[in-house]
């Protein structure tokens, strides 16, 4: 096969996702020449960040203050370290990255993005609410800032900067170039080699062919691994599944395209980089099958408010504080003890209209398209259009006027799980009795009322407490939920300049890692649990650190 001769550069970036583009933008600002190689066609430029909801973690922002939220870096540090629960020798660099990222999120992050044209939706979301002690997991206050334009809105300034570099000749982008090996010389990484893949008509996110039509080699002073995590590779997810979360599900949906395959991690390891915390991962338990899929097993995550009643596959209500939106991995761990791969939300039309949002840029056309008129409909009657489309067409939704009819639909979708509908009915009736007073022993109702004391939740996110069996709140709705793969929390160990570290703890000369490939910094900046809004932010921060470090070299 022919060899592709590529131009020389100061740095080679492997992966054209958000972290790689941020790195490239910083290198351009430093006057460097960059080559970006990516195995996917041009249609997928920007990677999986394009599909995201665009949530970013900020501390003590103007948006928070306008809503009466009192935040501080001390409170955020308490939440971060309480969630991360760092407990390993390998957590030394992740801890340092966590401290640096907190400083960034409380400091120049917002101003830096604002200067690039990034703007935020005025209502701050409250994700991962925790529900344990003040020193435990979760966000004590709302910190989830949705980007105006969602994931594409986060990408736009960096895509634009890279395209400027392409026009000036300082950036070369080579799509359909798959890196298979890092070139090393005298212990240093000096380039990449791999296969040129055949042109592909695949649209964004669709699987592309792996037909090889050539070979290539590239050399540069620095190589940056920006290839993402393992969420699209279910075999690798299962291989690294931790015993503390029970057994891996037999059936999982994919929250990321198939090209998020983990190949870059193994390639970096073979060149001397150290991989750590591979058993730490972040998968959601509120996944539904996409009725209009882009990739295989395409799952969409419900971003739920706190009011839906949550039952496991057998009909047992989940215990406090495993309410919708409170503790992702705690809920996953609990559900893996049941022996079944699904669970259930039971709710009303009144709840779905106020509390259901769907993760993803394509599921939020109002925010993604910056359409104020369409956005205003969220405050009116009815659920958002994409939510209604899933309710009408999604295989996981059951809609009924009576509990008896609802249970018929749930049984039809339960497979071999012994669904105890009598237990579900008992829980619903008992919970409904508790709504009659403003005080209650039902901790979920207490949490709902507490959430509504936050202005943002009351306006847009949390329904007024009501009886599930109130006909005026109907119809009744049940949603079958699946595990949907998403993020790797471990990866290539790096120092604060994003230099990849070897087994002896010293930098591998010439090799850097950013984004999810680096566990979003240090090989595991989140520890065991994430606070949300920190994944895109980790891509931004690690890319910035790497680009500036290489630019100084």
Automatic annotation (TrEMBL):
FAD-dependent oxidoreductase 2 FAD-binding domain sequence ranges: 10-536
GO molecular function, one term: steroid dehydrogenase activity, acting on the CH-CH group of donors
Name of the protein described by the UniProt record: FAD-binding dehydrogenase
Family matches, as InterPro entries: FAD-dep_OxRdtase_2_FAD-bd (IPR003953), FAD/NAD-bd_sf (IPR036188), KsdD_DH (IPR014614), Succ_DH/fumarate_Rdtase_cat_sf (IPR027477)
Database matches in SUPFAM superfamilies: FAD/NAD(P)-binding domain (SSF51905)
Domain of life: Bacteria
PANTHER family membership: 3-KETOSTEROID-DELTA-1-DEHYDROGENASE, KSDD-LIKE STEROID DEHYDROGENASE RV0785
Source organism (scientific name): Agromyces atrinae
Keywords: Flavoprotein, Oxidoreductase
């Amino acid at each position: 096969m022919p060899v592709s001769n590529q131009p020389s550069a100061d740095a080679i970036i492997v992966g054209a996702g958000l972290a790689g583009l941020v790195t490239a933008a910083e290198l351009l600002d430093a006057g460097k020449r960059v080559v970006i190689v990516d195995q996917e066609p041009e249609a997928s430029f920007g990677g999986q960040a394009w599909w995201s909801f665009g949530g970013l973690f900020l501390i003590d922002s103007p948006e928070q203050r306008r809503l009466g939220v009192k935040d501080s870096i001390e409170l955020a540090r308490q939440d971060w370290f309480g969630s991360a629960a760092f407990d390993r020798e390998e957590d030394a660099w992740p801890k340092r990255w966590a401290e640096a990222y907190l400083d960034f999120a409380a400091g120049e992050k917002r101003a830096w993005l604002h200067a690039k044209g990034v703007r935020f939706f005025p209502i701050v979301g409250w994700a991962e609410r925790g529900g344990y002690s003040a020193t435990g997991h979760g966000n004590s206050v709302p910190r989830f800032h949705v980007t105006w334009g969602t994931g594409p809105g986060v990408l736009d300034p960096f895509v634009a900067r890279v395209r400027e570099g392409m026009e000036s000749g300082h950036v070369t982008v080579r799509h359909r170039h798959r890196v298979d090996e890092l070139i090393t010389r005298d212990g240093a990484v000096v380039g990449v080699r791999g296969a040129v893949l055949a042109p592909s008509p695949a649209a964004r996110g669709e699987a592309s062919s792996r037909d090889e039509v050539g070979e290539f080699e590239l050399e540069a002073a620095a190589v940056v691994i920006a290839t993402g995590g393992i969420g699209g590779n279910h075999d690798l997810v299962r291989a690294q599944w931790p015993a503390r979360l029970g057994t891996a599900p037999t059936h999982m949906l994919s929250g990321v395209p198939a090209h998020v395959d983990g190949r870059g991690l193994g390639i970096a390891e073979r060149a001397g980089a150290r991989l750590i915390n591979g058993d730490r991962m972040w998968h959601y338990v509120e996944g539904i099958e996409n009725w209009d899929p882009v990739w295989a097993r395409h799952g969409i995550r419900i971003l739920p408010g706190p009011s839906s009643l949550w039952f496991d596959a057998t009909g047992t209500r989940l215990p406090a504080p495993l309410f919708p939106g409170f503790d992702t991995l705690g809920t996953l761990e609990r559900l893996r003890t049941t022996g079944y791969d699904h669970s259930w939300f039971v709710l009303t039309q009144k709840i779905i209209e106020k509390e259901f949002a769907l993760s993803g840029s394509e599921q939020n056309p109002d925010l993604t398209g910056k359409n104020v008129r369409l956005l205003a409909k969220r405050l009116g009657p009815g659920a958002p259009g994409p939510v209604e489309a899933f309710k009408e067409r999604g295989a996981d939704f059951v809609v009924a006027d009576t509990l008896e009819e609802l249970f018929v639909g749930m049984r039809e979708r339960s497979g071999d799980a012994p669904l105890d509908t009598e237990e579900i009915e008992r829980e619903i009736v008992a919970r409904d009795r508790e709504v009659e007073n403003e005080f209650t022993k039902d901790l979920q109702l207490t949490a709902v009322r507490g959430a509504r004391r936050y202005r943002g939740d009351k306006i847009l996110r949390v329904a007024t407490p009501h009886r599930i069996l109130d006909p005026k709140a109907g119809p009744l709705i049940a949603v079958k939920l699946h595990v949907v793969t998403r993020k790797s929390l471990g990866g290539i160990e790096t120092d604060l300049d994003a230099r990849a570290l070897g087994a002896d703890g010293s930098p591998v000369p010439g090799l850097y890692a950013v984004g999810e490939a680096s566990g979003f910094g240090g090989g595991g900046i989140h520890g065991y649990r994430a606070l949300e809004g920190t994944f895109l932010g980790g891509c931004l921060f690690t890319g910035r650190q790497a680009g500036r470090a290489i630019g100084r070299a």
